[in-house]
Amino acid sequence: MVDSIPVKSLPRDTGWIEVICGSMFSGKTEELIRRLRRAQIARQRVAIFKPEIDNRYSEDRIVSHSGVSLPSIRVRDAGQILDNIGDVDVVGIDEVQFFGLDLVDVCEQLANEGHRVIIAGLDQDYLGKPFEPMPQLLAVAEYITKTLAICMVCGNPANRTQRVTRNDARVLVGAADSYEARCRNCFTTNLEEVTKAG
User: Fold this and answer.
1) pLDDT tens per residue across span 92-150
2) The whole model's pTM is what?
3) How far is residue 179's CA from residue 56's CA, in Å, rounded to a whole number?
4) Does position 169 have pLDDT exceeding 90, yes or no?
5) Residue 152 domain-assigned?
6) 163 in any annotated domain
7) Is 142 helix (H, G, I), strand (E, B) or coil?
């Protein structure tokens, strides 16, 4: 088995897209880093990208909440990924929910050119709604991994990201100061209810 793909199912002479999705604190970036490190160990040429907006832990690294990291290139938009790709075998992209729908075409182009494209990001926003461009990326991907966190209220498996601050902007970059992992039962879209409890 290579990563989470059985060797007999591994594509040959083609590119493909792998999606790692889930809630915050579910290990998406950690899994992305694990796959990219294995590619580097196998002497594959790797390029790693992150959106310019995400500067929570580092300006020039993708960093998991547990502190695991790899050097990366910050880009303003999906088009800049193509401008900075170089001669690589594997392309890693973190926090894809911060890119627009243009990212779908970029990932498709990279895969069509023979690259292994591994992306990670939230599949739902703080209201529990599909978070573009993830639904479109899930539709075109060859391989999908959904990670689960642990609910910070009851301990059940969590697939939702609970905002715990009073801010209704769809995009709000934050970590434990702004979000918690929640299960279906403990998740609410009522921010007033959450902030009163917290």
Assistant:
1) 999 999 999 999 999 999 999 999 999 999 999 999 999 999 999 999 999 999 999 99
2) 0.88
3) 13
4) no
5) no
6) no
7) coil
Residue 5 has pLDDT above 80, yes or no: no
Question: Do the domain assignments include residue 102?
Answer: yes
Q: CATH code at 133? A: 3.40.50.300
The answer to whether residues 114 and 15 touch, using CB atoms and an 8 Å cutoff, is: yes
Selected catalytic residue, list 30, 95, 113, 132: 95
- The count of structural domains within the chain is 1
DSSP state of 9: G
Bond prior to 51 in cis (omega within 30° of 0):
no
Check if 52 is active-site. no
How sure is the predictor about 63, in pLDDT bands with cuts at 50, 70 and 90? confident
The SS3 of residue 196 is helix
In this model, does residue 6 exceed pLDDT 80?
no
User: 61: burial class by Cβ within 10 Å (0-12, 13-18, 19+)?
Assistant: middle
**Is 80 among the domain residues?**
yes
DSSP per-residue letters across 92-124: EE--GGGS-THHHHHHHHHHHTT-EEEEEEESB
- Determine the structural domain holding residue 49 and report its residue range: 7-147
